Amino acid sequence: MSDTKSAERSLDPESWDALRDLGHRMVDDMLGYLEEVRERPIWQPVSAESRAALRQPLPRAPEGAERAYSDFAQHVLPYPMGNIHPRFWGWVIGTGTPFGALAEFLAATMNPNVGGGDHGATYVEAQVLDWFKEMLGYPMDASGLLVSGGSMANLVGLAVARNARAGYDVRKEGVRGAPGPLTVYGSSEIHSSIQKTVELLGLGHDALRLIPVNDRFEMEIAALEAAIARDRAAGCVPIAIVGSAGTVNTGAFDDLDALARIAERERIWYHVDGAFGAIAALDPGLRPRLAGMERADSIAFDLHKWMYVPYEAGCILVRDAAAHRATFTLTPGYLARATRGIAAGEIWPSDFGIELSRGFKALKVWMMLKEHGIDRFAALVRQNVEQAQYLERLVRERPDLELLAPVPLNIVCFRYRGDGSLSEQELNDLNAELLMRIHEEAVAVPSTASIRGRKAIRVAISNHRTRRADLELLVEETLRIASQLVGSLERAGSGIR
């Protein structure tokens, strides 16, 4: 018998003790990194040395775990996006938590494929989905799926809408079988992922009807009804209305109840994009603003935004579980189900979405909910909204600053306007430069928005580490940097230098 044992290899460590020591050091380093996050710059440009180190040829020979970790600590860790910092308010990006990070380690260690089967991970996901239905007042017999984020959740929800409301077998005939152009409706403030979804579903972006908004950036109900009537008269087939629960620019809520009534009357699928705003339902004071969301045929929302779960984690809930499953299920022989063994299992998540290979996203959500309880998340949502209201007051108190949109939730859009002597174009140029200086000087990370043609500094507070003192610092530093820019503008005579 030949001796082949020595030639057979694996990727397990040669020394478990050495890896255990390294692992302990990694945990200590990362917890220290989080503990001291306020003391470091939010963001800094990647050094030339680290850029070069991250452009190396494919390694052929082993470099070892110690070297890999050392390179990470030297060339990656010092250059974060910054969203774990207390003064990160760009886009709508969540903060993560220490325990959530540890839960990711547990999930990766178990390393299950949560596409289906009878094992613990599928039960954890089912539990988490039931908790979300209860949390949002949604029917407990609805279906759901954890996905990468709001964009994928919107894609799944509107794919079900297309198949359920097209009036024929879309899976068999494709969109070419439609009796008329299929149309989707949302406000002009809708998230870009809706357009991407409409295009990916084969409808073309011309099928997306962008309905105007009022002065609070909410969809105009009369304009929506008129658009649907025009399309029906022209032979189009309206299939979905998308309501926004927290628009990305300003945090505005559409009249979700009115949209539900229209969708029911017109027999159109009603989808709510609640990427971050749906989580406002946790707070009793904010929940009335979401009235009507519970009537939606599908709801998309993120967990890595306003529930602070480490990236990535989003969710889609669908009222009609049969329609949801019919849109995606496909069971070839090699995925045959069984009544016993690993191939059993009451629900296979792969029947409700695109992916067959799926990570254990649910574990970090499940563990964080058990760690803190839902009431603490509700309190943090309220805290962030109150912080946005505080920033709104700070802006209103400063004559050199100007609020550009209402503050219905956790987003504040403002700009520096100075003494009124600058033109609109000069103000736009100045505020664009001001934002970059705020980033480069590591003051804070807001992002930008265009509010009726005016360049805004946009602060979206979905950060459990933010304190009011951070917002006070933002205002003071904004005025300081803006004053320097205006001085350079005056010296140059024109343009922002």
State the gist of this model.
By secondary structure, the chain is α/β, with parallel strands linked by helices. The chain contains 15 helices and twelve strands. The relative contact order is 0.13.
Task: Please give a structural write-up.
With 497 residues, the chain is of the alpha/beta class. It folds into 2 domains: 103-372, Aspartate Aminotransferase, domain 2 (3-Layer(aba) Sandwich), CATH 3.40.640; 376-492, Aspartate Aminotransferase, domain 1 (Alpha-Beta Complex). The protein is built from 15 helices and 12 strands. It has helices at residues 16-35, 48-53, 65-75, 98-110, 120-136, 150-165, 170-173, 192-200, 221-233, 256-266, 321-328, 361-372, 374-397, 424-440, 468-492, and strands spanning 88-89, 143-147, 182-187, 208-211, 237-244, 269-273, 298-302, 314-318, 401-403, 411-416, 445-451, 454-460. The protein has a 7-stranded mixed β-sheet, with helices on both faces. It has a 5-stranded mixed β-sheet with strand order 1-11-12-10-9. Strand 9 (401-403) and strand 10 form a beta hairpin. It starts with 15 loop residues before the first helix and ends in a 5-residue tail after the last helix. The model has no long low-confidence stretch (mean pLDDT 96).
